[in-house]
C-alpha cells in the first residue's frame, strides 16, 4: 500500500517562492480540539492576528497538549536517559560535507578540525555536527552508504577530535540506498554496528520524519546508545523516542506561533532550516521565540549558500543566551506572546516570557524592516517581577524595560529577581564585545577552475583525435540536482524543490575557447597504469580506481595532461574516438573550487548504474555533451571502479 505524504507532493504547479499548504502554520480551533491527523503533525500552531485572542489561544494550546499526551500515553522517559540529556541544549548543529575545504585540506590530504572551527566561529560555534558523507556521489559505483564512512582513513580520529572540542557528532542514514551492494546486516543492524565503530552520538534520518521500530530499538541499544533526529515535522507519536527534529520549511504566522513538537515536549530540540535561503531572519526569529535551535547549512551538497553578516550576528546573539539560560528555557514557565504593549505590536514587535523563581527572560523579535527602540513591554509586568534589568543580547544594564530591537532581528531582556546567575557577567561581557552587524547582502562565492591546465608538449600516443583551436558554442546537458552545475545555486529562497523541478534533464549552450590539442583515442589501460605503479600486471580494460591526483601523475610521466571537459567533448564527436570496455566515466582537467567545495566534471558515463532512487549519481553511458558534476572527496575515496581517464597533448 502506498501512503501519500503531502510533504512530497509535486511542487511544479506552485510558485516556488510561496510556501505550500503543508508548510503553512495550523490554526488551532477554540478549546484546543483538533483532528489528531492534523494536530499531531502540525508544523507550527499559528498565533491569532488579534492580540485580544492570545490569552484564550494559550489556554487552547495547554488543553491540546494535555489531550494529546493523555491520548498517546506519553511518558517522556527517554529524555532522562543520561546519553541523551545533551540534546536539550544542542542549539546549533552544522550540516557539513565531510570533504568541505574548511574541514579537509585537499593539498595535504588531512582533516583540519581547528581550521574548520576557526572559519565558522562567526556563526557562534556549534553544539553538534552532521558529517555528511555519501550523497551526492553515492551510486558512482557499487559502494553503499556504510562504505563511504568505513573507507575514510582517519575518520575515527576526526570524530574524536570533534568530541575533544565539545561537539556531538551525527552520522547520516540514507534509507533510499537500496541499489548498491548489500551490507552483511539489514540497515538497523548495520547502523548499530557502525555507530560503535565510529563512536558517534546520533543518527540523522535523511528524508525521514521518523525511524521504524527496528531502527529505533537497534540504535537505542547500540554501544554507544544513539539519539535520532528526523528531517522535518516528527509526529507526536515519535517524540517519545526521537530527541531532535528539523523544523525544515516551517512558515510562521505574522505574530510568532508555537512549534507543535517543542510545545508538546520542551526537551525535544528542533533545528530550524530553509536550505536555499539567503535571508534567515524568519527562521531565526521562530527559533528565538520558541527556545529552539538552528541547523547551519551554508553549503548544500556543494552549493554555497552562506549566511549574511546580519543573520550571523543574530544567531550569535541568540546562541549565547540560549546556552547560558538553557535550564530556564527548558524548565521555566513559557508564556507565548505576552506583555508587549500595543505600540510595539503595531510596529511588528512581539514578546514572549520565560520565568522561574529567580529569572524572567523576555524574548523579543522585530518583524519590521526598521530598528525599533520604543516602549515594548508593559511596565506593569516588570512591576510585578522586580529586580535588575539587562539586555542580554547586547550586554547592557537597563534602567527601564526598553531596548533596541534591530530590524528583522531579536532582543532579549532579562529580569533578575533572585540571586544573579553565575553565567550572567560573562554573558554580558561577551555580548557587549560583539558588535551588531546590519549587512544583509549575500556573501557570494565564485567557483574558480584550478589549476589551469598545464601545457603538455610530449609526443602524443599513436592513436589520437585532434581538436582544432577555436571558439566553440557547445551544448551542455545534465540532470538538475542539488549540486548545481558550475556557478550559483539551482534554487534560491525556494520552498522544498521536488520533482519534476528536481532531477529533471536540463540543457544549455556554453561558449569556450580551446587550443589545438590531441586527445588520446581511448583510455589509459589497467596494464599501462600498473606498469607506471611498478606492478607490471593488468589488462586492456580502462584503468580504474585511480584518484585524480594519480591520473595527473601518470599523465605528467608521459609528457601529457588530462583533457578539459570541453576538449573531451569535442574529441568525442570526431571519428576514431573510442571507449574501452567496460565503459567508465573519464576524469577531466576541470577541477573547480569556491574555497569550500571542490568538484570536477566527469564525461562519458559508465556501464554501471545504481538503480532504485533518483538520489543516486547519474549512471549509464552518456552522450558527449552530458556532464556530471562530481564533488571531490579525498584520501582515495574519490577513486571509483567506474572512473578512468585518458590523456591529452598540446599541439604547436
TrEMBL record:
<dbReference type="InterPro" id="IPR016187">
    <property type="entry name" value="CTDL_fold"/>
</dbReference>
<dbReference type="InterPro" id="IPR005532">
    <property type="entry name" value="SUMF_dom"/>
</dbReference>
<feature type="domain" description="Sulfatase-modifying factor enzyme-like">
    <location>
        <begin position="538"/>
        <end position="591"/>
    </location>
</feature>
<protein>
    <submittedName>
        <fullName>Formylglycine-generating enzyme required for sulfatase activity</fullName>
    </submittedName>
</protein>
<dbReference type="Pfam" id="PF03781">
    <property type="entry name" value="FGE-sulfatase"/>
</dbReference>
<dbReference type="InterPro" id="IPR042095">
    <property type="entry name" value="SUMF_sf"/>
</dbReference>
